[in-house]
Amino acid sequence: GAGVSQSPSNKVTEKGKDVELRCDPISGHTALYWYRQSLGQGLEFLIYFQGNSAPDKSGLPSDRFSAERTGGSVSTLTIQRTQQEDSAVYLCASSLSPSPTGGRYEQYFGPGTRLTVT
Amino acid sequence: GESVGLHLPTLSVQEGDNSIINCAYSNSASDYFIWYKQESGKGPQFIIDIRSNMDKRQGQRVTVLLNKTVKHLSLQIAATQPGDSAVYFCAIGGNMLTFGGGTRLMVKP
Predict the structure, then answer these.
(1) Which of A42, A105, A111 comes nearest B43 by C-beta?
(2) For the segment A6-50, what is each residue's pLDDT rounded down to a tens digit?
(3) CB contact at 8 A, A87 and A36
């Protein structure tokens, strides 16, 4: 079956512009996660969704970042007034469940969107 | 809160040797542990997992060891190959998965 897909794969934008990044999770996965990965660094958690709601937004770095999920499926991460420090790879992952309800809950990752702010 | 650390940011091994990548965690209530592999330009991919009721689990050329006493997790790769070159992340499960900082494995031919 299809894995997690993300679009665009690459995005170059000018400082101050808004960008939208899209994630299509694996069908049937209720949990969806956004991470940011700067060059050569680890994964920085941004936000996760259970269904359409976001119980944990603690990782969003500023109020310029927002995310939504509709129909329990596709999610969009929006960055307003982009800054150069926003340049990174944005990874999306999905899992059957976000918590250990007796089963495995490994996250499956998409290929990421590489955002470059010039 | 959970904190996850890695002992070595970069590990260089000779092709054919065994590799050991380590991960420390702080929350003794953690019950699920995963190792991911991330190749250049790709998202992390699941390698192997282990639950807290086990201390060892083996896959194809990989073994995960869990020492709950010292809260330490390791990934062992047997007969390391050039294709194993990647960044390896441990992920610790509690309420959610928390990812460690990553170790870059470099395989010398």
Answers:
(1) A111
(2) 999 999 999 999 999 999 999 989 889 999 998 777 888 899 898
(3) no
Nearest to A99 among B42, B43, B95 (CB): B95
pLDDT single digits (tens) B57-77: 999 999 999 999 999 999 999
CATH class of B4-102: mainly beta
Chain A residues within 8 A of B100 when measuring between CB atoms: 42
Q: Does residue A103 carry a pLDDT above 70?
A: no
B91 with A112: Cβ contact below 8 A: no
- Suggest the residue from B30, B47, B97, B106 to mutate for an interface test with chain A (most A CBs closer than 10 A): B97
Residue A57: what pLDDT?
83
The domain limits of chain B are 4-102
Burial class of A55 by CB neighbour count within 10 A (0 to 12, 13 to 18, 19+): middle
Query: What's the CATH number for A20-101?
Result: 2.60.40.10
Chain B positions touching A108 (Cβ under 8 A) are: 46
Sheet containing B62-67: give its strands across.
B4-5, B19-25, B72-77, B62-67, B56-58
Domain ranges of chain A: 20-101
